[in-house]
Each structure stands twice: as C-alpha cells, then as structure tokens.
Write a structure and sequence with these properties.
It is a single chain. Strands 3-2-1-4-8-6-9 form a seven-stranded mixed sheet, with helices on both faces. By secondary structure, the protein is of the alpha/beta class. Helix 9 packs antiparallel against helix 10. The chain has a single domain, classed as Alpha-Beta Complex (Spore Coat Polysaccharide Biosynthesis Protein SpsA, Chain A).
Length: 249
C-alpha cells in the first residue's frame, strides 16, 4: 500500500471480514486511493482487517494488499470489529464493512470536521451500488429511524478514547452492534458537549448483494418479522439472524 511520512497514524480503518475475497479487493483499492490523496501522507492511515475465521483467501489477499490482518475466532461481527480496534494504533478509529467502497476524499473530509472541538464522532452516510423501487422503498423506510436516533452509517469514525470508554462493540449482539455502539458513544459525546456529524459529499458505496440474492423488496417483509422475533421469539431470532447475516454467502 505504499510508503508514508509519519510513524503514528492519524486514522485506523478497521474492516470486519468473513469470506470476503470477492469484494474486499475493491474496498482496499479505494482506501489506497484515499490514502494517496490524503494530505498527511499514506502512512497517516493504517488499514486493519479483522478476519473473522474466514475459510477462503480473505486473509492472504488482505496481507498481499498491505493491510494488517488480526485473526478473530469468535464468529460475531462485533468481535471482528473489536479485534481490529485492539490492534489499531491511530488517534481516530474508523469502521467500514468489507463489501463497501470508500470515497477518495474521505480522510480530508474527516480532518475538516474533527478540527472543530464540537465534533465527537461521525459517519459518511451510504448508498447502495444500484437502486430500484424496492431498494429505494427500504432506504426511505429506514430513514425516519436513523433521523430519530441521530446517527448514520457508511464509514463511521470516533476518537479512540471514546471508543474505549464506551467499552467497544457488544459481542453478545449478532446484529445491530454498530447502532448500539454509536448510540453509546453519542451519549458520551453529548455529555461533554460534542456531537455526531454526517459528512457531506463523501458517501460510502455499499454492495446490494442481499438484494441481488433475496430480491429488492425482501427487507420490507423481513424487518418487521425479525423485530417481532427479537421481542417475542428470541431463539428463532438468533437462528434466522445467523442464517441471514452469518451463513448467507
């Protein structure tokens, strides 16, 4: 991934990954481009892959691309995120999913908002690599909840001290572990007069592979069903969550 100019990175980008050899190269290439365009130099950004017990070539291709690989045996995306964070050296921790592509100007955009002491954490926002009436409907259906919670997705970032004080990701959660952490860190930031900031113009692009496989309207039916199971049928919820989020490759 090239040589840089600083010893201690400004940003540590953590990528949780399980059997992602097909899509991970595009993300790593996009991060390479973003690092090369970053004014502080390539080495101001380190890339860490939390390899969540992959059985394919995920770890090998990540190492070949110059990323650090942190093996994580517990099959939970929260554990993979935490494992990568523990290995990180940067001042600011960033988390992005392996089936995404980062914007080339994302690191400069983060510098701008983090220069304001009122910024505690933030995110780039995201869009799917393709759209359709079904995908657009699902995105619009989720928008009110995201607005009510005051958070967003894509590449999310926070200072290491806030991440550690919040206790990191909850490894007992199989899904929505990212929402859980963001809300806890947001509360900590709010208590110290800081806020969540959504970056403008540097959206993360994420794959539509779930829609490709299950249909563009499937989340409209799945989300209410899984919410009901979470409340009243916990064993069924865990089983379906594992099938959909962990075994569906």
């Amino acid at each position: 991934m090239g040589e840089g100019q600083v010893a201690v990175p400004r940003y540590s980008v953590v990528i949780p990954a399980y059997n992602e050899e097909r899509l991970l190269p595009a993300l790593l290439a996009s991060l390479d481009t973003a690092r090369e365009r970053y004014g502080r130099g390539v080495s101001a950004v380190e890339i860490i892959v939390g390899d969540n017990a992959s059985t394919d070539g995920t770890a090998a291709l990540a190492r070949a691309a110059g990323a650090r690989v942190e093996p994580v045996t517990l099959r939970a995306i929260a554990a993979a995120r935490n494992g990568g964070a523990r290995a990180a050296r940067g001042e600011v921790l960033c988390f992005i999913d392996a089936d995404s592509v980062a914007h080339p100007d994302v690191f400069g955009a983060m510098d701008v908002v983090l220069a304001d002491p009122r910024t505690g954490m933030g995110a780039t926002g995201l869009r799917f690599e393709r759209s359709s009436p079904g995908i657009a409907f699902c995105m619009k259906a989720m928008l009110p909840l995201a607005q009510a919670l005051g958070i967003d997705g894509g590449l999310v970032f926070m200072r290491r001290a806030d991440f550690e004080a919040a206790g990191g990701y909850d490894e007992s959660l199989l899904v929505a572990e990212d929402v859980d952490l963001l809300l806890r860190v947001k509360r900590r930031c709010k208590a110290t007069g800081r806020r969540f900031v959504r970056l403008q113009g540097v959206e993360t692009v994420t794959s539509a592979r779930k829609f490709d496989k299950h249909g563009d309207w499937h989340m409209a039916l799945m989300a209410p069903r899984m919410a009901f199971q979470m409340l009243f049928l916990k064993e069924r919820h865990e089983s379906e969550t594992r099938k959909y989020w962990y075994e569906d490759r």
